[in-house]
Amino acid sequence: MDPPLKFIHNQIVEYSMQVTYNPLENEGTVVYNLFLTPETEREYAIQTIRRVAAAGITVGDMVRFIEPGETVEGYTVPNGMIGICTLCSITLDGILLRRGIVTNPIGGGVIEVESNLPRRFTHMILYESTTFDPLQVMASQDLTSVNQVMRQGDGFILGNVRECHMEAENILAEVLDECADSHFSGILEVGMPNASILGVPVSPQYLGVVALGGTNPFAAMKEEGHPVTTLAIKGLMDSSLMEPISHF
């Protein structure tokens, strides 16, 4: 019997229930993205991740490098390539769930930035309607200008949005403050109850939360013509296996 289709919304819910990460202690299980690039691109990738993290356009600064032939969560990195694991913003849904805040992941897409401020989503794919990660799709379509945002403050970056009940607003603020002081960051915008956020409508009595995509550093690499393959929302990993990009 063939396995049933699994939409990204279901995958996010499954992973978020297994996240144990505590941002204040920087301990526990996180959701990660995996990126593949030739070994010759290692130094360029390190410098790019540093620049994007310093500009605050990604999900924290934690990474893990997987050498050629090594295996991570059952996936073996091909010869001649290196794997780079980064924090996935879906980890946020798990962090909130552990604090009693149930989120409804809405979708991921491209965010227009003007004068260093997020303005609106220009493209979006709903999680409940796709079996592919939306940010992986968007990054492959040459829709971003992450480097331009870093240089000029205007352009297009990747992000996603979820909603939670407005009764959780006070606890949400506490959790986001904790994340802001940790290695897990990248919260871009928090909406008002019963109001759309960056042009995306939310359910009645809910508020929206927009997070940056952990794929942004690699969208920046692709923009400059460097080869990279994205495997977003790849799996779960203990954060102790990751290090700040400044250590490399």
Structure overview:
The protein is an alpha+beta fold and 248 residues long. It is built from 7 helices and 12 strands. The protein has helices spanning 8-16, 42-54, 91-98, 134-140, 146-152, 169-180, 216-223, and strands at residues 29-38, 62-66, 71-72, 75-76, 81-87, 103-114, 117-126, 155-165, 187-190, 206-212, 229-238, 243-244. It has a 5-stranded antiparallel β-sheet. Strands 7-6-8-10-9 form a 5-stranded antiparallel β-sheet. A two-stranded antiparallel ribbon has the order 3-4. Helix 1 crosses helix 3 and helix 2 (42-54) packs across helix 7. The mean pLDDT is 95.
In short:
This is DUF128 domain-containing protein. The chain is α+β, with helices and mostly antiparallel strands and 248 residues long.
In quaternary terms, these chains amount to single chain
The stretches of 5 or more residues where confidence is low (pLDDT under 50) are: none
Tell me the series of helices and strands, N- to C-terminal: HEHEEEEHEEHHEHEEHEE
Report, as a whole number of angstroms, the end-to-end distance.
Answer: 46 Å
Adjacency order of strands in the biggest sheet: 11-1-5-2-12
Mean of all residue-level pLDDT scores? 95
Beta-strand percentage range:
25-35%
Tell me the number of strands: 12
